[in-house]
Amino acid sequence: MQSLTNRSKVVSKKEMTLVERMYxxxxxxxxxxxxxxxxxxxxxxxxxxQKREFSGVYRGQHVLKRDEKGAERCTACGLCAVACPAEAxxxxxxxxxxxxxxxxxxxxxxAKYEINMLRCIFCGDCEEACPKEAIxxxxxxxxxxxxxxxxxxxxxILVEPKDNPIDLSKRQSAAVKEFKTHxxxxxxxxxxxxxxxxxxxxx
Amino acid sequence: xxxTTYFIYKAILVLAVFAITLLVATYSTYAERKIAxxxxxRVGPDRAGPFGILQPLADAVKMFMKEEMIPSVSNKWxxxxxxxxxxxxxxxxxxxxxxxKSLFIDGQEFSLQITDLNIGVLYxxxxxSMGVYGIMxxxxxxxxxxxxxxxxxxxxxxxxxxxxxxxxxxxxxMTTGTLSMKxxxxxxxxxxxxxxxQPLGCLIFIICAFxxxxxxxxxxxxxxxxxxxxxxxxxxxxxxxxFLFAEYINMFISSAVISTxxxxxYNMPFIGRWVHDPNxxxxxxxxxxxxxxxxxxxxxxxxRWTLPRFRYDQLMNLGWKILIPLSILNIVITGAVSMRVExxxxxxx
Amino acid sequence: xxxxxxxYFLSFLAIMFGLMVVLSKNPIHSVLYLVLxxxxxxxxxxxxxxxxxxxxxxxxxxxxxxxxxxFVIMLLNLNKETEPHKNVWLKLSAAVAAGLxxxxxxGSLKNAEMIAATNAFDPSxxxxxxxxxxxxxxxxxxxxxxxxxxxxxxxGAVLLGKKxxx
Lengths: 203, 349, 166
Hints:
The complex is a heterotrimer of chains A (203), B (349) and C (166). With 349 residues, chain B is an all-alpha fold. Chain B has helices at residues 3-39, 55-65, 76-92, 120-141, 145-176, 181-187, 194-197, 199-212, 224-227, 237-262, 271-274, 278-304, 312-338, 340-348, and strands spanning 103-105, 108-110. The longest helix of chain B has 37 residues, at 3-39. Chain B starts with a helix and ends with a helix. Chain C has six helices and no strands. Helices cover 74% and strands 0% of the residues of chain C. Chain C is mainly α. Classes of the chains: A alpha+beta (203), B mainly alpha (349), C mainly alpha (166).
């Protein structure tokens, strides 16, 4: 059979010449190779002092965003839980009481919202599924714990603190935001049937 | 020289050689890890102190603190004797190596060699031949198949390569005409290095030195892939440390011996043109010797992290079928060259 | 004076280790005691200023031959279980034979005279230069014959070790 690449080599079993049988030239050339590595730049990153630069689209620990007024965006619709391939998300919905308008944006909210970080595969599907721009993956890393139950993150960890909003500008760059304005690609807002479809969108 | 002066001078010299041997061996462990790392595009230990310079200290603390285990089925005394013997024989060799020329203080000559035996080369050789006992006894006393196999491999390997080593030294002795290490070193002043006279002998000697120190590619007695740890499988704590340490001391001494026998010892060409003070020359000689030793220690490590281990039959083939005939050939050639006048006369008559 | 004490000390060690070779139950211990005996004897050589002999003695006997002994004994794994059971009569006859040998030796040495050394002790005789000159001058023929003997033994060993060709 003809090979597709020309990388394959035919094993030759020819008798070695005297010079080859002395092995010394081969040893010498091998030692030169290792010596050349001696002077090469080392790719090691000395971790605690140096940190590897994360990619802009790195998907780390989740955050539940608040809106501009500081109310939770999540409405406990359950789309993220449905979208999750690892079944890491669970939630309990509750109805907003009068007087809680500054706490929750919509009339329904998540009383309990848990992500099991041991199950989560950080695929970002929850972020894709969310119609309310509530859940995002950030460039933070999930901590290491000694017990399994510690990995189940509740609202106390997931919801961003009011006074210290989580910066998403790296992941939610201008290009991404621009993309989201094309309503035909997303399902965040009601689908506008009158707008012309440019690229193949989801129908 | 007064007896007290003599005694103090010898005591200082012995202690200095002992301390330097241990220090060099200690830092060889660090150098080994660092060089291995650099040859493999890593950075190696760099946490303990700047550039990891305190790493040997940390290793020593670890070795001392580890639990001391003596297998209940082992032969207790021989189990302890093994690493002690390995360490003892490793340290004994430094005695006959000329570390430099003599110092002249207050009109008195202080030789930088602990003792100049007139059979220094043979002394060296006898101590080296003793070195195998530590490994064999340790391997046997562990009462473990892996250890026993390691010990047996060590003994047969060392005996096989001692022969070729001895024969290559005989050719060297034929050209130098002396068995005293001091004279061998002194003869190589300027560019009269023995490696230029005995290139083949030098090569054989270096290969045998690798085999005698159980260094890669001849580290079959302790090869991890087949024998777990070989002769030191059952050892832990400082007894294991002694075995490992003995290997580094052996490497240091072998480097010193190779430098002294073939690479001019403490001599450096052309240095006499700029430096005339004998004391300064002696001190510079020590520095040169240590530069050469450092190079050979680096060479040992460089080879270790380049070449794969021999298979056992390859090892024996190399020793008996290649190195020994080659070293005998070397003796014959050396003899023929040194008798060339007589041989020419015989044929022209 | 000091050399005399060293001589007695070394002799004591040599005899003690020699006895231990015979008396120790474990063959590995016997071999190790034999190595120590060789060291004591090498010490005697040094006392006689025969440094070359001392070094060669250690290299050849302690460094090579005894290592091979140890090698073989380790491989055979001799211990109490594998020791062949000896007949009581065999032991008795061995004791009688050894006793008779002792009697003969005592009897022959009892009437022997002390032979004084005919020439004075030359401290330089054991040095390597003189030894080499003697070996390759006066005793050249026996030396070469001995080497022939060793060569013959080597050829024989190779022949025995080789697989028989049919």
